[in-house]
Amino acid sequence: MILLTSLFCLLAAWTAFAADDLMIRRINLKTHSIQPPYLDSELQSRWFEYGGDTLVRADRYIRLAGDLPSRSGWLFSKIPLTATNWEIEFEIKIHGKGSLHGDGMALWLTKNRAQPGPVFGHTDKFEGLGLFFDTYKNDRPGVVFPFVMAMLGDGQTSYNKANDGKDQELASCSARGLRGATIPTKGRLTYFSEKSLKLQLQYKNDDSWIDCFETGPIKLPTVYYLGFSAETGELSDNFDVINVQTHNLYYDPNEKPVKVNTESRNNRAFTQTKKSSGWGWMFVKIAFFLVACVVGFVGWQTYNKSKGPVASGQKRTRFD
């Protein structure tokens, strides 16, 4: 009976913690997604615009900057991204012939679009989010390059290229092996409005995602555009965008644990779990668990009493 009680408690606990897992719907946003052949019959993209030294190879890549000195290019969405919660999955390739290389590329979610400048091919003092894939180390002792760093721009603060943005860093990780990776380099950037921003990378093994960083609440501009840019200096590399898929995420706003719906993309399944940050709900579940255990224990005690010694005055029958 003790075993049955324990199983009952475990079942109650599992029910309390798992019953409110909710499936998130992922709605593809064609307006912010791009894949081969990239261009239509008029050599234009309906939803994206490109410029600078960007070269489009329709069956293979969008090359923002080629392996030559002093090149820069950009790719930006034509309309703003208005989803409250979203996920951007992108495939890029950073490669070149030389043993020395630079400078880097960036993913942007900024208030202003298509503005060339000195920050990985984009304008400085931007307002919004910049995600930098920095392949050349200027002055960041103790940091392994390539280096992936997020910066939240306020429209007034400059990116300090001299120390690789050390003072402007929101979150970061080192990504040794990202440049020249033998498998497609992929990223997954997930944003829940004013709750969290998470980046995962895949560049070592297929279907093996590495958590780069996850922040607390951040606030993006009310209107922002999705873009990519890259630049080379005296040293160079090829900076290619292969594929971009953006999804709008719909989830229960009650901050309960939610499980992202699994879909197959390119014959691969991608899953993600986001846990609740609400302490109140956790206490409710713990209380439910304790009540369930108490009920189980009382039931066990009642059962034992009903099977105990017979009432006084009754005769016992003995079997030898």
TrEMBL record:
Gene3D superfamilies named among the record's database cross-references: 2.60.120.200
Topology in the lipid bilayer: Single-pass type I membrane protein
Molecular-function annotations in GO: D-mannose binding
Compartment list: Membrane
Alphabetical list of PROSITE patterns matching this protein: L_LECTIN_LIKE (PS51328)
Keywords: Membrane, Signal, Transmembrane, Transmembrane helix
Transmembrane segments: 278-300
L-type lectin-like domain: residues covered: 26-249
Ubl conjugation listed as a keyword: no
Pfam families: Lectin_leg-like (PF03388)
Record-linked CDD domains: lectin_leg-like (cd07308)
UniProt keyword Transmembrane helix, yes or no: yes
Gene Ontology cellular-component terms listed: COPII-coated ER to Golgi transport vesicle; endoplasmic reticulum membrane; endoplasmic reticulum-Golgi intermediate compartment; Golgi membrane
Protein name as it appears in the record: L-type lectin-like domain-containing protein
